């Protein structure tokens, strides 16, 4: 938005607000949600959501998914929204940036958020490559993200992104702290059918693999030696 330009806030019906298609963050009816509901009942929505117009009508939320849910639970029919024209990449980056500073993010939320932003930044870099030989921004996107969110390195960002290769039940176990981050990273290199076999074995043994066990499983998988 150009400096000095004021954005208009409009009241939009909740029924006309749709979630971002690849929204990586969970919207749970938890204690924090109930606190937001009570705040909205008492003070109203203090910070407007951000959305972009959809081609067939309505708006796609970019920021404000939890606020919209809280408004629904509070019995409201509308909420304040800033409407912006955003392309897919800009919208994806804003979705991530508006949520990453929240406390208590789950590993799965970080994983899909980093992946979403990384892909958007890389796509922006590819478009810039059409008119410029400067490719470094695309190559170093993960390092930019690491600096912005306080991760130790771009490698750590990439390790989080790798978790998106886990099948949902295993990723849920990472969120529930039943599988630690480092073993989970190693297990993400297993094929999906191998991950399902592992899940069955974990269920029957009532145990989860250690880091060294996960590393060995990865090696067996890479050599094609992992069998039931």
UniProtKB/TrEMBL annotation:
Record region (Disordered): 208-228
CDD domains linked to this entry: ParB_N_like
GO molecular function: DNA binding
GO annotation, cellular component aspect: chromosome
Gene3D superfamilies hit by this protein: 1.10.10.2830, 3.90.1530.30
ParB-like N-terminal domain boundaries: 10-100
Entry's Gene Ontology BP terms: chromosome segregation
Family: Belongs to the ParB family.
Record NCBIfam families: parB_part
The protein, known as: ParB/RepB/Spo0J family partition protein
